Amino acid sequence: MWQHVLTIFIASALINNFVFSRYLGLCIFFGVTKRMETAIGMSFTFTAVMLVEAVLNWAIYNYVMTPYHLGFLKIVIFIGTVAAFVQAADTIMKKVAPALYYKLGIYLALIVTNCIILAVPLINADENYTLFESMGLAVGSGLGFSLALTIMASIREKLELADVPKSFRGLPISFVLTGLIALAFLGFSGMITL
Amino acid sequence: MYEQMTNLLIQIFSQALHLVANRLVPLVEAGAPVEASGNVPTSTVYTTLIVLGALGIVFGVALALVAARFVVKMDPKVEQVREALPGANCGACGFAGCMGYAEAVVGNPDVAVSLCAPGKSAVAEKIAVITGKRAEKMEPKIARVFCQGGTSLSQKKFIYTGVQDCTAAVLAAGGDKSCEYGCLGYATCMRACPFDAITMSADNLPIISPEKCTACGKCVAACPKQVIELAQSSKAVVISCHSRDKGVDTKKKCQVGCIACGICVRTCPVDAIRIDNNLARIDHAKCIVCGLCVRKCPTSAIFDYIPERTRAYIDPAKCDGLDVCAKVCPVNAISGDLRKVHVVNQQKCIGCGMCAPRCPKKAITMVEAPPAFAAEEKTKAEEPVAV
């Protein structure tokens, strides 16, 4: 079983990287990678929310939705859970760790509407993963996303000084870069077969 | 207990749903006969509604509990101050963003209300009203460029073809400009300015818009040559040069550099200028912005930011001959016997404006230059001074 969890973890972090292989979460990916500092802040917040979210949604899916045959409500309920949890986390963080709140609080609001956050519980539900497999996928996806953010932020910081043709400046060159990194990430495919 | 309550809730829900469903289902069948009605069992509709409703209630109660348990007592003043601030999060106040400053200024009695540079005195007054602190008079500031040696007026050491950015150019032997202290002209400041207040002139020098500049200091930090400084915007006469080279060397490298000749020092009526390290410096606390030095400077290194100077004019009907203006005038342009009507010598008047506010009878007004003077001013302005 643990081997399977590890496989899922590595597969979701590298082979099926959400940004570079599934092309999800691009809005945040391009939004926060202008500076390394914001990219790292987002990575931490994202991975933490993802993990808790996967556990919560796994419990709701297996103990509420499956017994009542409500599989078709996945999207609605998962979004609701994400929103409720993020709001609660926001409130608690403001009281317990104000310093952390002012550093990471702005990212929490962005996370609510993120597609990776929704994709992870949906994949967990579709594949009928166990609790640990779900957690493996969540942490793997979180780290994969962090990796993508870190790579992109470090390149974009250098890009500021590069002499980019005028029509490519800003977002266009970032998309070109993302495509190139995605090509590189193709190299991981076939490393593990699920 | 818990079991009973959930049972009760479910019963109430199902009763209510029966009522709704009995009315709804026929309607659906009538309106959309084939696809919509389908074969969805009514029980699924119930469980869906119950589960969603229950989840909603659970989340709602949980959030309410969390909000009540982890309530953060915020001073409403902080929010008010936050709204009064511009919200650019530029950090010119020295705190982490506008929120940080709002908290500090409300919570800490030693934090001044006037620290927001982009907000200027209007915001300072608002914050003073909210916090009950006293707003001290805030001298508005502006970024000034201390170099006039554009491409046409200065020499180059070599041809630089690297990244078109001052921070990059300065790595190549201190930049391509012969003058070590001058503006490199690759517009790093322009890109750093969050308010679009900086444009580049045709001669590759930054032009700062006095309307848009908020004195946030971003360009000062961005310039690798420290050519830009924050200065009081009322002190409109500045020595636009940072060259500490000897006069001869400065002259070789740039046509508009300060050669430390000392003419301005001798000209200044209030002894505000001194020469230090081969560079004339104006003591802005003493400077009366008379503009005398601007005219005398042989290399035009001193720049007057007042576009057109006005002249003093004494209304004979109001003048009581109190002689205050004549004593104040730095260039002795006003003459007249005590208790007699005074007159301003338009040839001598430099438009410094010192006399007007001092007149007890308010007899002095500052007027546009007479035609003879306007012509002279024009020839002066046509000289190649590009800032």
Structure description:
The complex is a heterodimer of chains A (194) and B (387). Chain A has 194 residues and is an all-alpha fold. Chain A has helices at 2-15, 26-31, 36-65, 74-96, 98-112, 115-126, 131-159, 171-186. Helices cover 37% and strands 11% of the residues of chain B. Chain B is built from 14 helices and 12 strands. In chain B, α3 (76-84) packs across α4 and α3 (76-84) packs antiparallel against α5 (120-131). The radius of gyration of chain B is 35 Å and the shape is elongated. The chains are: A mainly alpha (194), B alpha+beta (387). The A-B interface holds A 60, 64-65, 68-70, 73, 76-77, 80-81, 84, 87-88, 91-92, 94-96, 98, 102, 161-163 and B 44, 47-48, 51-52, 55-56, 59, 62-63, 66-67, 70-72, 96, 99-100, 163-165, 168.
Let me know the number of strands of chain A.
0
Query: N-to-C terminal Cα separation of chain A, in Å?
Result: 13 Å
Order of helices and strands of chain A: HHHHHHHH
The secondary structure category of chain B is alpha+beta
Widest beta sheet: strand line-up of chain B: 1-4
Order of helices and strands of chain B: HHHHHEHHEEHEEHHEEHEEHEEHEH
Q: Kindly identify the CATH topology of the largest domain in chain B.
A: Alpha-Beta Plaits
- Counting H and I runs of at least 4 residues, what is the number of helices of chain A? 8
* Unreliable segments of 5+ consecutive residues of chain B: 26-36, 371-378, 380-387
- Per CATH, which architecture of the largest domain in chain B? 2-Layer Sandwich
Percent in strands of chain A: under 5%
Radius of gyration of chain A: 18 Å
Number of strands of chain B: 12
The radius of gyration computed from the alpha-carbon positions of chain B, rounded to a whole number of angstroms, is 35 Å
Tell me which protein chains meet in the greatest interface and how many residues each side has. Answer: A-B, 24 and 22 residues
Which class do the helix and strand fractions of chain A yield?
mainly alpha
Oligomeric organization of the protein chains: heterodimer
